[in-house]
Amino acid sequence: MAVAPSHMTAVFWVLLPVLISVGSALLAVWIWQRRLELQLARERQALSEARTTIEGQRETLDELDRLRSEAVQRQSLDDFLADLRTEQRRFFRDQKVLFTSRRTLVVQERLYFRNIPLCNWVEHEVPVEEGVNVEEVAKNLSVFNPEMLKSPSTPTTNSNGKPKTLKAATAEFVK
After folding, report:
1. Of 74, 86, 69, nearest in space to 152 by CA
2. pLDDT tens across 13-41, in order?
3. Beta-strand (E) ranges in 71-152?
4. Total structural domains in the chain?
5. Is 49 among the domain residues?
6. How far is CA 49 from each of CA 41, 52, 66, 99, 136, rounded to the nearest angstrom?
7. Mind listing the pLDDT tens digit for each residue in 93-151?
8. Does residue 37 lie within any of the structural domains?
9. pTM above 0.85, yes or no
10. Residue 19 placed within a domain
11. Nearest of 144, 137, 107, 139 to residue 125 by alpha carbon
């Protein structure tokens, strides 16, 4: 059975709109996919920018938090050191051995936190000659020198290797 040319044209005119509609549908789907891919690329770019911004803000907040905690730690250390005080007693002790007498300066110191003593009396004895400045000798003997406690810029050790200030030594320990 051969198909007659008139039937062929009829089939052609029936299949032509079907082929055009299938082609149009495929073209519409392809265009729709490209639009979705473009929109997805834009959203990914916006998401990447948002993540970068959030990460930058997170780093900034972490740095601010670290700086605040350091400031609070410094302030609490300063408050603690402000509550430390010393009490000092000085007197002369005369010792007589046979026909000679020896005069010594006795310096006693105690460290307090508010009104609570932190240690027992620390006692130093130094022989004193006539004409010596007793105040200067007493300051050099002092273990808990109040002027040194208030000065944060002094070095932490003196020439003997002993801590000069409690504040500086504590700051070194905290670091």
Report:
1. 74
2. 889 999 999 999 999 999 999 999 999 99
3. 84-97, 100-113, 116-117, 122-127
4. 1
5. no
6. 12, 5, 26, 94, 68
7. 888 877 788 888 888 888 888 888 888 888 888 887 777 777 777 777 777 665 655 54
8. no
9. no
10. no
11. 107
